[in-house]
From TrEMBL:
It is found in: Nucleus. This is DNA cross-link repair 1A protein. It comes from the Eukaryota. Keywords: DNA damage, DNA repair, Nucleus. Residues 12-157 form the Metallo-beta-lactamase domain. Residues 207-311 form the DNA repair metallo-beta-lactamase domain. It comes from Ameca splendens. Belongs to the DNA repair metallo-beta-lactamase (DRMBL) family. InterPro entries: DRMBL, Metallo-B-lactamas, RibonucZ/Hydroxyglut_hydro.
C-alpha cells in the first residue's frame, strides 16, 4: 500500500499518500507539527487532540469512524478499540491482493477482543504487534483489580485522616480510569492544570467532564505529570495546600513498577518519606506477557512483526522465539 502507521518522525515519505495515527502518545505522533501538510487518518478523539494540541490544520485530519468499514484509497479499513488510552485504535486492513493485516498500535489485549465480530470473521495473515512487555517477567493483574485496590486504599487512608490529599500520575492521555475511580470513591472533583483540562475536553467524555476542574482547592484528587511524582516535588505541592491538607498520598500507575516479585495487588507497599507516601501500582495500558500470548494464540496470524523493543538483534530474536513457541503450541492442540 501507499500507507504508513505512526511514522511521522520520518517527515514526508516519498510515495506515501495516507498517514495513519493509532493514538495520541508522543512516541507515535512525534514529528507531526502544525506545519505538517500530509493526510492524517485517525478516529475522532485522536483527531480532536491533533487539532487542539498540535494545531494541525483541519483540512489534513481525516476522521474515520470506529467499528465501521471505510474505504481509504481503494483499501478497506476498520478501526477497533485498542483498550489503551482514550482514542487508541487498532487498524484492520483488507488489502486488494486478499491479504488481511492487523496493526495493534499500542494495546492491552483483553479476552473481550475475541468477541469483536470484525476479527471473528477474518483470517489475519500479518500482525503488527505491540511488544512493550513481550518478556515472561512481566505479569500484572487485570486492570479492574488494580483500580479497585487503588480506590479502596485511598478510601481507607482518607477515612483515617480526612486531611489527606490524593495525587495520581498521568501522561498526556491515559490513566483516566485510575483518577476517575479515586474521585468517585471520595465523591470529589479532580484538579487539573489548564493544559491538562483542555486535553481532557478533547475526549468528549461526559463522565470526565463532570469530574474535572482547574480549581485545585475544590478537589481532593490532583492529577500531576508522572515525572513530577518525587518526594521533593510532592512536598512542595502539598505545601501549597497546607491550610486544607497535612498528608499526601500519590499513586503512580505504570507497568514498569511491576514484575514477578509482586504476586498480587496485596503485596504493594508504598515508599514513605515523612507525611508523603508513593504507591507504585501495576496499572498498565499495554498487554502483559500472558495477555499477548493468549491474543496471538487466538488470532493465529501467519506472520508477526513486533513494533516495540526491536532495536537490538538479541531482543528481536527472543521475541521471535516466543512467537514461534506460542504458534507451535497452538498447532499441537489442533
Amino acid at each position: 500500500t501507499k500507507f504508513v502507521v505512526d511514522a511521522f518522525r520520518y517527515g514526508e515519505i516519498e510515495g506515501i499518500s495516507a498517514y495513519f495515527l493509532t493514538h495520541f502518545h508522543s512516541d507515535h505522533y512525534g514529528g507531526l507539527t502544525r506545519s505538517s501538510t500530509f493526510p492524517i487518518y485517525c478516529n475522532r478523539i485522536t483527531g480532536n487532540l491533533v487539532k487542539s494540541k498540535l494545531r494541525v490544520a483541519e483540512q489534513y485530519v481525516h476522521i474515520l469512524p470506529m467499528n465501521t468499514e471505510v474505504n481509504v484509497e481503494g483499501v478497506r479499513v476498520i478501526l477497533l478499540d485498542a483498550n489503551h488510552c482514550p482514542g487508541a485504535a487498532m487498524l484492520l486492513f483488507f488489502l486488494p491482493d486478499g491479504q488481511t493485516v492487523l496493526h495493534t498500535g499500542d494495546f492491552r489485549a483483553d479476552p473481550s477482543m475475541e468477541t469483536y465480530p470484525e476479527l471473528l470473521g477474518c483470517r489475519v495473515q500479518t500482525l503488527y504487534l505491540d511488544t512493550t512487555y513481550c518478556n515472561p517477567e512481566y505479569t500484572f493483574p487485570r486492570q479492574q483489580e488494580v483500580i479497585n485496590f487503588t480506590a479502596s486504599t485511598a478510601f481507607e487512608l482518607v477515612t483515617l485522616n480526612p486531611r489527606t490529599l490524593l495525587v495520581c500520575g498521568s501522561y498526556s492521555v491515559g490513566k483516566e480510569k485510575v483518577f476517575l475511580a479515586l474521585a468517585e470513591v471520595l465523591g470529589s472533583k479532580v484538579g487539573l492544570s489548564r493544559d491538562k483540562y483542555n486535553t481532557m475536553c478533547c475526549l468528549e467524555s461526559q463522565q470526565i467532564k463532570e469530574r474535572i476542574t482547574t480549581d485545585w482547592k475544590a478537589a481532593q484528587v490532583h492529577v500531576l505529570p508522572m515525572m513530577q511524582l518525587s518526594f521533593k516535588n510532592l512536598k512542595s505541592h502539598l505545601a501549597r495546600f497546607s491550610a486544607q491538607y497535612d498528608r499526601l498520598v500519590a499513586f503512580k500507575p505504570t507497568g514498569w513498577t511491576f514484575s514477578e516479585q509482586v504476586q498480587s495487588v496485596e503485596d504493594i507497599e508504598p515508599q514513605i518519606s515523612g507525611n508523603i507516601s508513593i504507591y507504585g501500582i501495576p496499572y498498565s495500558e499495554h498487554s502483559s506477557f500472558l495477555e499477548l500470548k493468549r491474543f496471538v494464540q487466538w488470532l493465529k496470524p501467519l506472520k508477526i512483526i513486533p513494533t516495540v523493543n526491536v532495536g537490538s538483534w538479541s531482543s528481536r530474536k527472543a521475541m521471535e522465539r516466543c512467537f514461534s513457541d506460542w504458534l507451535s503450541e497452538t498447532r499441537a492442540k489442533l
